[in-house]
Amino acid sequence: MLRELSITQRSFPLVAPFRIARGVKYAADVVTVELHQAGRIGRGESVPYARYGESVASVIEEMEALRAELVAGMGRDELQARLPPGAARNALDAAMWDLESQLSSVPVWVQLGRPPRSALVSAITIGIDTPERMAAAASRIAGAGLIKIKVDADDPAARIEAVRRAAPLAHLMVDPNESWTIELLRDMQPMLERAGVELLEQPLPADADDALLGFSSRIPICADEACHVTSDLPRLRDRYQAVNIKLDKTGGLTEAWRLLRAARVDGFKIMAGCMVCSSLGITPALEIAREAEFIDLDGPLWLQDDYPDGVSLQGGFLLPPSPAFWGG
Length: 328
Description:
Its cofactor is Mg(2+). Its EC number is 5.1.1.-. This is Dipeptide epimerase. Belongs to the mandelate racemase/muconate lactonizing enzyme family. Mg(2+) binds at residues 175, 201, 224. By secondary structure, the chain is of the alpha/beta class. The protein has two domains: 4-111, 2-Layer Sandwich (Enolase-like, domain 1), CATH 3.30.390.10; 124-319, TIM Barrel, CATH 3.20.20. 32% of the residues lie in helices and 23% in strands. The chain is built from 13 helices and 13 strands. It has helices at residues 56-64, 67-71, 76-82, 87-104, 108-111, 131-140, 156-166, 182-194, 233-236, 247-250, 253-265, 279-282, 286-289, and strands spanning 4-20, 23-37, 40-46, 124-126, 146-150, 171-175, 197-201, 221-223, 242-245, 269-272, 294-295, 312-314, 317-319. Strands 4-5-6-7-8-9-10-11 form an eight-stranded parallel beta sheet. Strands 1-2-3 form a three-stranded antiparallel beta sheet. Strands 12-13 form a two-stranded antiparallel sheet. Helix 1 (56-64) packs across helix 4 (87-104) and helix 6 runs parallel beside helix 7. The longest helix is centred in the N-terminal third of the chain and has 18 residues, at 87-104. It is globular, with a radius of gyration of 19 Å.
């Protein structure tokens, strides 16, 4: 046996309920992977997502089905062929990148041909609540460089306007999480422009976005649920102007990097996004974030207790962990 494989489930309670259009989250339920080889440990984390038919149990089952090949030394290229995009592949892919960096003494950022990780401005998310409570939340982070506003189809204008009044200088993104119709999207255009919203994330259901064909939006529209992997790009060209790259959708950094490069060639703006997760899930995504126009990696900031040596927020900047935390 070349390696040892450890797969565990972990639940991180949140500091407050996280409300979006499709439900409320009280904890981040993640799957953590460790690959042990030659005295080194490569780590990865993923968030099973019900929207994509995943659960903690199903993700662990996918991993266990490959246990023999994984401990025998399966590499990232074979992993891409053996598992579909999703949370199971993401955690394993991240652990492989981490382990490779340690065994070779070549950091992940060097393998990607990029400079070392540095501080970034990430969006701070305000979940759905009453306009008054969302304004109060915005006033507490009014100095943030970028605020992401979660809304649904219930009077989104009042919520967006409340946040804008409370944080007049912040850059704004709005995320309806597939809850709008094309009629509401059309009606919201003047208000979004007036509020200075810079990006609108997945307003329509991914399976109903044909309605965006021929629609000229005043605000760039970003594909989230509609964009998982590189092969999705051709159908997105006449619907969206940006794509949200999340490692739990792509199935890891390996495919995320391919998607990033292909999306650039196709002229899309890039958003680096995340699920609500720990710093172990966020750190690989920092490699995508430094190439992005929009960064939304505040997942660990929602946790009551994150890894003590993980990412941190200081002076409005998201600071990466030390190289020893993940990826060299």
